[in-house]
Amino acid sequence: MSRITSLNGRSLISGAAQGPLLFADVGLSFWGGVEPFTGEVIDRHHPLSGEHLGGQILAIPSGRGSCTGSSVLMELISNGHAPAALVLAEADEILTLGVLVAQTLFERSLPVLCIGNEAFARLRAGAFARVEGDRVSLFDAPPDDGWAPALNEAQHQEPVCSIELTRHDRALLDGEHGKAAQVAMQIVLRMAQLQGAEQLLDISQAHIDGCIYTGPASLRFARQLVEWGAKVRVPTTLNSISVDQRRWRELGVDPALGVPASALGDAYMAMGAQLSFTCAPYLLDSAPKVGEQIVWAESNAVVYANSVLGARTLKYPDYLDICIALTGRAPLIGCHLEDQRKARLQVELPALGELDDAFYPLLGYHIGALAGSRIPLILGLEDRQPDLDDLKAFGAAFATTSAAPLFHIAGVTPEALDPAQVLDGPVPVVTISLTDLLHSWHELNSASDPGVDVVSLGNPHFSLSEFARLAGLCQGRHKHPEVAVVITCGRAVLEQARAAGHIAVIEGFGATLISDTCWCMLGEPVIPCAATTLMTNSAKYAHYAPGLVGRKVHFASLAECVNAACSARADGGLPQWLPAAASQEIPAHV
After folding, report:
1. pTM, rounded to two decimals
2. What is the CATH number of the domain that holds 464?
3. 18 and 87 share a domain?
4. Catalytic residue (one of 14, 66, 70, 240)
């Protein structure tokens, strides 16, 4: 054994650990990317696919994707399948928060260290790593020096820093408003310290993502808050839960999931949250206005709120969302501030032909991967006039592959109607070609068998206008008897679509409507056990499905999905705006 090097960084969660080094230079979404009961990496697009995290020093640039990553990491810490430590290039609030909550409620933890991009690249040389406070040491083999962490190191908590507090903040912190609000304020302040905030701000509303059932720890957390008398202080909506609360038994869901998942939704409603159960809260009447300071979790909702509505929220982790809802106070950092909403990357598009609705989710998926944690400004769509459904699909796919909470589209999104307003000096420029998009198209189309067993629609939840389009495509037709067509949506939009007459047409086509939950939580038997291939118009679900449900995916437009539902086959062709890509070899460059 020989020590290769030692690197210093910033300790986000103190502690000490050692183990085999598991390195990747691609961010990882713990939700949809890591199985919460085993610790296996199930993101089939990720270089660590198939690896098990338990006991290893996990080195990734940052998290990405879903806000529920904090819940998954908390589950892994609770059940013993977590990494021994996390070493990051960039501070990641979602993963850090999962550790903080496990530390606060379960007295279990792991060290989290941020070392910066330059030092992070040097981790590639190591086979074994040791984390001690603000330092990580690399070895070419397991060290034999008898080292062991001090027993109390993993449980050490850093003191709360000096943050400007109001009298009300201090009352919450002193327990004058109950135990739940006190613990919530402690967690808010610990995160504010890690984020470098100097003060807190009032928020007008919250959207809770932590109501997704990831395992026993997620329910234990919510029930503990209820026992402590938790009540939200601002209007609060709930994300999709893990089952259709009214119909999960009818749909054949195993009670081992149905009972606790439904109970988790009930627990958050007991805290005063509204029965909304949608991953698209921007479709509700309570959607925020331009400039409104809010606290939303659920990655696609965050991106839509910031980018399309012009509201202001961070990409809040699960559990920090409810802590802020219980206090009404959030750290004044990031996208809550004007100067933190500026573009850090410019993306230029090629000349485009006639587009269909598959273009926008594909583009969002591709640009999200390019952007990483940088906020992009996209040029080239000024005359295209993408509608709100296009922007919804773009944002959901962007949030799947990016850690950024916001995008700007020149001439389209409210803050970039004049693109100069979102630029603050020169930024790197990336030019993408149709060939680049073709590569992402093939990545999303993981299925080689042309057969289609299931058509998956509604990730994120369907809007009223999407129902209208789908009804038009289904009118006078009927699906193939061996194809399941399933659409997920929120209760409010479902009733609007029913009143408009769309649901009768869609059910006449043979489709099944499911509310309360979303495709990222659905499995067998909603997906028939014998089904091997899915088709979807959601780039988000095309990315997650191979890992979540073990099926290959065809990705295409809504019209192609309906055609496949009738024929039980995908035509396998490219959309008309992609074939010319082979002759346009314009490499991406920064």
Report:
1. 0.90
2. 3.30.499.10
3. yes
4. 66
